[in-house]
From TrEMBL:
Species assigned in the record: Planctopirus hydrillae
Active site location: 65, 98
Name of protein: Ribose 5-phosphate isomerase B
Superkingdom of origin: Bacteria
RNA-binding as UniProt keyword: no
A GO molecular-function annotation: intramolecular oxidoreductase activity, interconverting aldoses and ketoses
Stated family: Belongs to the LacAB/RpiB family.
GO biological process, one term: carbohydrate metabolic process
Keyword terms of this UniProt record: Isomerase
Length: 152
């Protein structure tokens, strides 16, 4: 898989380790920035990854900011993106198994490195269950479609 990874300045340090892990797991890791610890605006970097996922230029994305929540909000503005803020092994696994999340959002401030690495590995190796969950994910796609109106 092609995995796009980006952060804000608070996630730069762990981003480099995540990129290495993604590569070690046999995926193509793409660094969408930033490259240093200088203060940046997280929406700019979250949008880069979300746009690539939305356009299907990459298979999945991983975003890191202070809490993971800001990146998640930005990413979910893009059609076809199902971003989830993951806090532990269970949310990492279920975001894939039940929601078919294609963008994982992590906290650069609140997670320790070994814990974050384990969550990334779980997220990248967990398959979508489909079945009843596919019906629900399809409804989400319908809600974001152009055909959906607020009168429906």
């Amino acid at each position: 898989m092609k995995i796009a990874v980006a952060s804000d300045h608070r996630g730069v340090q762990i981003k480099s380790k995540i990129l290495a892990l993604v590569s070690d797991l046999g995926h193509q890791a793409l660094d969408f920035g930033p490259q240093d610890h200088e203060s940046v605006d997280y929406p700019d970097y979250g949008a880069r990854v979300a746009k690539a996922v939305s356009r299907r230029e990459v298979d999945r994305g991983i975003l890191i900011c202070g809490t993971g929540m800001g990146m998640c909000i930005v990413a979910n503005k893009f059609r076809g993106v199902r971003a989830a803020t993951c806090h532990d092994d269970v949310t990492a696994e279920l975001s894939r198994r039940h929601n078919n999340a294609n963008v994982m959002c992590l906290s650069g401030d609140l997670l320790g490195e070994p814990f974050a690495m384990r969550m990334v590995e779980i997220w990248l190796t967990t398959e979508f269950e489909g079945a009843r969950h596919a019906r629900r994910v399809d409804k989400i796609s319908h809600y974001e479609s152009e055909e959906f109106s607020s009168n429906s």
